[in-house]
Every structure is written in structure tokens, then in C-alpha cells.
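Friendly challenge for the regulars: who can give me the C-alpha cells for this chain first? No prize, just bragging rights.
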Amino acid sequence: MRTRTHLTPAVAAVTATLLVGLLTACGQEARGGSRYQPDAGKGSTVGIAMPTKSSERWITDGQNMAEQFEAAGYRTDLQYGDNKVENQVAQIENMITKGHRLLVVAPIDGSALTDVLRRAHESGAKVISYDRLVLGTEHVDAYASFDNERVGELQGGYLVEALGLDEESGESGETYSVELFAGSPDDNNTRYFWDGAMNVLEPHIEAGHLVVGSGQTRMSQATTLRWDGGTAQKRMDDLISRHYGSTTVDGVLSPYDGISIGVISALRSAGYGTEARPYPVVTGQDAELASIKSILAEGQTQTVFKDTRKLAEQAVLMGDALLNDEEPEFNNTTDYDNGEKVVPAYLLEPVSVDASNVDLLVEEGYYSAEQLS
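First reply, four minutes later:
Bragging rights claimed.
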């Protein structure tokens, strides 16, 4: 015989209170919160995994995406990996456990996420690779970035033009000394930046118009782990002391503003930056505020502006489509092979910026005039 259990009024009240509390707790969500949200579509939670807060641009990227996803009706869980692969893997695993249906990932190491993204796929989550391509996995649905080879072409082209090689075409016999820096070896974008720049520079190197004083012309010799400015500064210190005792550096290919600032610090320590010995032409990327101020102060020469607000907007459009079982818009479905699949991509156009057009950043609302003063 089955015995029915009767709750006293007091016990029933306590039980009801606990139930309400549990339901309320499950419904609580702030940016970076822990709501379990198993359903896709509006109101679901998007996990955003950014690599680091040590770079101004990644902070801006994360904030832009969080704000735009929330404006589109989604909750967000924004995490930064502190440039430690194990941190990012743990953060993504946690996002999967929470039931997030979309992950937007800018990888610290593009090849280190194979296992965790397989688990994401098994959980039913969609994955957008953001700016840096995730490698070695078929479990990535879309890629949002800039035309990264074009970034390198803008940097290499600026060096050539600033040194006057286009006009001279080598006829004067004058040569210029340059040094080459590349990005982090574990970032897939590094190869695209390098290839784009070298497409422009190599003909001048082979013709003898540009001379790499150190002889370090291979990408493997020029990489800068984690895009670290301090690492770049130490390498530039070494290059100057070993190869430029009586000669000067005329140009430096730098793929990123943080590396550029490190390079300029080394040059300053070696006596550059004076009227008698001005800084060489130094390129960059990301239009970080410190580098824009350096350009205005005649330190760094150029940077490549990539409007991350527009990149965030594109990631949100992609994510919204994926979460609602729609096909995202792509403009490149052939070039981004991650080793397991060609990842469909949407690429935005970068813009070269120097002292002549730095006002563009104010006109576009990226910085205020006060910030640049």
C-alpha cells in the first residue's frame, strides 16, 4: 500500500521559498555570470573568450561584442585568458558546462583548442573564430576578421614608399637598412601579415635596394612570442648592438603597435629620436592610443587601423544567424583553411594611418580629439 506524505503548512512554505530561490538564482545573469541557458535564440547566453587584457584592442573587442550582443537580445559571458592557454581552455570548458549555445573565440594558441571545441560541438554549441583563426578542428562554424594579408601589404608598402623606393626604382644605387619583426608563432594571422608584407618587400631585398642588416629574413627568425613588446625590445636591442655599430637602421617592419613601442624604446636607448639621428620608419597595427600619440610625436611612423567596432558588429550578425538556424553572410569561402576545413569568413578592410590622416580616427569616432591631444 502506497503511503501519501502530507506537508505541514510550515514545511510547505519553506519548500516553496526554496523553490523560488532556486528559480531566481537560475535566472540571475550579469556580464560574466553563470546562468545555465540550454536553448538557442534570443535570450540565450553567448560565451566570449578573449586572449588577454594586456592589449588595449582586446579589451575594446570584448566590450564591443558584449554590448552589441546584449543590445541584440542576448546575455554574455565575457572572459579573458591572460595569455595563458590553460586559462582559456578552462574558461571555454566552463562556458560549455553552463550551456552556452554560441562561443566567440579569439584563441591565444590557434592549435590548442581542438579537444575543447570538440566538446563544444558535442554539446550543440556553435563556434565563431574571432580575428585569429582556430586551427586543426572542423568544429568552427565561421570566421570574422580583417583582410590580414592586406594588413601586411599596407605595412610593407608604407615602408617602401616612405623610403622613396618607388620613386627611385633603385636607379640611384642607394640602399636602405631594415629589420623585420613578425607576430606570435602560435597565431595563424602572423603568417598572413608576414606574407603580405614580404610580397612587397622581397623584390626590393632581392634587388639590393633594401638590406636586412641582421640577415634575419625568415619568419621563424623574426617572430615575437605572444606579440610581447618587451620581447621585441630585447630583440631590437640585440640587433642594434650586433649589426649597427657604425650604420643606422632606416626602417623596421613591425606587425603590431605593442611590438612597435618596444622597438622604439630600444631605438631611443641607442640614441635615435634626435635631430641628428631621427627614428627610422616604423610600421604598426591596431591604432592603439599609445601608438597614435607616438605617431603625433614623430616616434612611430605608421599603423594599420582596424575598426574593431565593425568587427564586433560582424561577429554579432554571424552569431545571431547561427543561433537562429540561419546562414551567416560570408565574403570569403576559399582562403582560410585551418588544416581540417576551409572556414567560411567575413573579412573587413584595414586602413593605413600616419600623421597625414590621423584625424580619420576622430572623424570615425574611434577616439576623441581630447584623447589625441
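The two ends are 85 Å apart (CA to CA). The chain is about 45% helix and 15% strand. Your move, everyone else.
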